[in-house]
Design brief:
Fumarate Reductase Iron-sulfur Protein, Chain B, domain 2; 242 residues; 7 strands; 16% strand; alpha+beta; 10 helices; two-stranded antiparallel sheet; elongated; Ubiquitin-like (UB roll); 2 domains
Length: 242
């Protein structure tokens, strides 16, 4: 590796109070280097004012998600060798969310969509009632299994072009969570939930482009969940007349 190859030219988004721009840093190139390693080096060695978010560093929490060369990724699990364009990298905050500072976004709009999608469990029994048996081969349980591994990292939300075009759209994560609850036989809020996800900004806004499935680090397919919601809401219209 010659002298020019020993460094990366890293453009990082810097923003405060709505004024944003890219700044470029030369970062030493290392073997098995992750994007999070690069960001940490810049903050620790070049500019201590750089703000970013991370926690576990091992692909469990999802808090380090950022845009890397235009694609949403967990930076702790993304190796430079796999995404660098030559010796260049561009790192930015997640798309479709307000920027607090630099690479840190405000997650409130993302979780507000969960509330709007009624993606919260509504118990049908109390803790004093016997636990409802659910077997592994139950068809509803199998359908829910495909949706329950979401860790709320917002990668799918940043990948979604419908969210970018329509701020009212509930987004893949919220709708995916609603689908898991639709398939929970213990839940008592189905009529309200199906009404919520079929309203303005709901599941029928999805264009099935599958950006959410392409970039989900846990290999979930929110598009599949949303298609299930589309079928369920159509059936509910016939069942409940709304």
């Amino acid at each position: 590796m010659d002298k020019t190859e020993a460094f990366l030219d890293v453009s990082i988004w810097r923003e405060q109070n709505g004024d944003g721009h890219f700044e470029t840093y030369q970062v030493p190139r290392r073997a098995n280097q992750t994007i999070l390693d690069v960001v940490a080096w810049v903050q620790q060695q070049a500019d201590p004012t750089l703000s970013y978010r991370f926690a576990c560093r091992v692909g469990m929490c999802g808090s380090c998600a950022m845009m890397v060369n235009g694609a949403p990724r967990w930076t702790c699990r993304t190796h430079v060798l796999k995404v660098a364009e030559g010796a260049s990298l561009e790192i930015a905050p997640l798309r479709n969310l307000p920027v607090i500072k630099d690479l840190v976004v405000d997650m409130d709009p993302f979780f507000d969509k969960w509330v709007a999608a009624d993606a919260v469990f509504a118990p049908s029994q109390t803790r004093d009632d016997p636990m409802a048996p659910i077997t592994p081969d139950d068809t509803m349980r199998i359908a829910a299994d495909d949706a329950i591994e979401c860790i709320n990292c917002a990668v799918c939300y940043a990948a979604c072009d419908v969210v970018a075009a329509n701020p009212d759209y509930l987004g893949p994560a919220a709708l995916n969570r609603s689908w898991s609850l639709v398939n929970d036989s213990r839940d008592a809020g189905q009529a309200e939930r199906l009404q919520a996800v079929s309203a303005v900004g709901g599941c029928h806004n999805c264009h099935s482009q599958q950006g959410c499935a392409k970039f989900c680090p846990n290999e979930l397919n929110p598009t599949l969940s949303i298609s299930g919601l589309k079928r369920a809401t159509a059936k509910s219209l016939l069942r409940w007349g709304r």
